[in-house]
Specification:
Layout lengths: L7 E11 L2 E12 L3 E5 L6 H8 L7 E5 L11 H5 L2 E4 L11 H6 L16 H12 L14 H14 L4 E5 L7 H18 L2 E5 L3 H7 L2 E6 L2 E6 L1 H4 L2 H8 L3 E5 L6 E5 L2 H9 L1
Parallel strand pairs: 3-7, 3-8, 5-6, 6-7
Antiparallel strand pairs: 1-2, 1-4, 8-9, 10-11
Helix pairs in contact: 4-5
Length: 274
């Protein structure tokens, strides 16, 4: 992957809605080069809508999405924007009878003219993306034969093949078993640390957010409740109030990582017996 130059994206005072119903109100978020920003919050808090607005797939009612050079996202053509920003959405239609290699090749569309040979870096980018996500052994298989977890990795490979400075991921660990959840999050860190990619990721798992993110944005009812380093944002009182369930926060004595623990009725009952 080429080094990201002046990579980044920011949403400024974004107001977003559907059919006149406001979903996000006055949210500002920065996705910065070489850093991972995690959007967290309960279902319906506006995480995915905010991410789609950053990807230029949801037009704001107010506010704007800005590039580092001051241009707005709407100042660019669709193809020019796609060379800078890519999004892995929660769900994509599965094409029938198309090989994994060809699906990963979809990520090269912004660089292609009418003929594939006009993309001289395409073949190397596709092979790199497949190796990075562990899908090379299935390169010639049809994607409609794959499991949900395998398909998720193929779509991530497609995003990596797009070779952008900004990578937006909407719940990328969905459908993955534990091994690949960890490997995908490691890959996200590698992209930020080694290639300067600006990563924005929606995560439901607060512990994953604590482990992978430099910056956490906590959304509550469509508003940004807190934004900052994980140890400042993932605070017990704020999380308990936001999620409506007691959430304890502590440092794992083995890993040294910030860890969150939701406390349900049965967990509380067991703790009281100890």
């Amino acid at each position: 992957m080429r080094e990201a130059e002046r990579a980044g994206l920011s949403g400024e005072d974004l107001h977003l809605g559907y059919h006149g119903v406001q979903v996000v109100a006055g949210a500002s978020v920065r996705i910065e080069a070489g850093r991972v920003t995690a959007l967290v919050g309960p279902n319906g808090s506006g995480k995915s809508t905010l991410l789609r607005a950053l990807a230029r797939l949801h037009r704001p009612d107010a506010g704007q999405v800005l590039l580092p050079d001051g241009r707005t996202a709407l100042d660019l053509s669709a193809k020019a924007f796609a060379r800078l920003v890519t999004l892995l959405s929660q769900s994509r239609p599965t094409p029938g009878g198309v090989s994994v290699r060809d699906v990963v090749g979809y990520g090269r569309h912004p660089y292609r003219g009418r003929w594939r040979h006009e993309d001289p870096d395409g073949a190397d980018a596709i092979e790199h993306a497949m190796r990075a996500t562990g899908v090379s052994p299935m390169a010639d298989r049809s994607v409609d034969e794959l499991s949900g977890g395998e398909l998720q990795r193929v779509w991530l490979a497609t995003c990596i093949a797009q070779d952008t400075g900004v990578l937006l991921l909407d719940e990328p660990t969905t459908f993955l078993d534990l091994r690949y959840q960890v490997e995908i999050l490691d890959l996200v860190r590698d992209l930020a640390d080694e290639h300067g990619v600006a990563v924005g990721v929606v995560l439901h798992d607060l512990n994953q957010a604590a482990a992978v993110a430099d910056q956490v944005v906590l959304l509550d009812g469509g508003r940004v409740r807190a934004s900052g380093p994980p140890d400042e944002v993932l605070e017990a009182d704020a999380l308990t109030d936001t999620y409506g369930i007691r959430i304890d926060v502590f440092t794992d004595p083995v890993t040294g990582l910030l860890t969150t623990q939701p406390i349900g009725r049965h967990t509380e009952r067991q703790a009281s017996k100890a």
